[in-house]
Write a structure and sequence with these properties.
The chain is mainly α and about 180 residues long. Helices cover about 60% and strands about 0% of the residues. The chain has a two-stranded antiparallel ribbon with strand order 1-2. Strand 1 and strand 2 form a beta hairpin. Helix 1 packs across helix 4, helix 2 crosses helix 3 and helix 3 packs across helix 4.
């Protein structure tokens, strides 16, 4: 795979005929309005069936990346690599989440109150002060900004786990100096 001159994804590796056939069948089922294009809601609905933890911004990013003709929808041919990327995204998330400790998961779940599976600043702040009350709001905002990899002003569990690890390391270093 590579990006073409327009910065769009082009699949250069051959896709197995069976995968292509299944993807085309799925495309037909996912195309609820029958216009031979998949719009963002149709793509998200499909992606959510494959991976219930998929985030809407992931679907949007992948769609934009694969939309070679720029019509803001995916044709059947553009959809085939979409299926592949959604599956790879799911596997990668499962692998990264498997390294998250039960303690981190429990803290995240306890403080994530909005139900969107992400921590906003207020939720993060209420969590962090229970772990390290020396972190100021300004420092916490800077940390949040640096760990917010998709720039949505919220932290996913994965993003939070990396931030939490840094906070614990910082706290341990400070305590060891004392």
């Amino acid at each position: 795979m590579f990006l073409n001159l327009h910065g769009k994804y082009q699949h250069t590796e051959p896709i197995d005929d069976k995968i292509r056939s299944v993807a085309k069948e799925v495309f037909t089922m996912a195309d609820k309005d029958g216009d031979h294009k998949l719009h963002t809601p149709e793509l998200y609905h499909f992606a959510e069936k494959v991976d219930p933890l998929v985030e809407s911004q992931d679907v949007q990013i992948i769609k934009t990346y694969l939309d070679i003709n720029g019509d803001m929808n995916l044709s059947c041919e553009e959809f085939v690599p979409f299926v592949e990327l959604i599956l790879k995204n799911k596997v990668a998330r499962e692998e990264s989440l498997s390294s998250i400790t039960p303690e981190v998961q429990a803290l995240f779940d306890q403080h994530e109150l909005s139900g969107d599976r992400q921590l906003d600043f207020d939720e993060l702040h209420s969590l962090v002060v229970t772990v390290d009350d020396t972190i100021t709001e300004d420092v916490l905002q800077e940390l949040m900004d640096s760990f917010d990899t998709n720039y949505n002003d919220k932290l996913s569990l994965k993003e939070f786990s990396h931030l939490y690890q840094l906070i614990i390391e910082r706290k341990n270093k400070r305590e060891n100096k004392a």
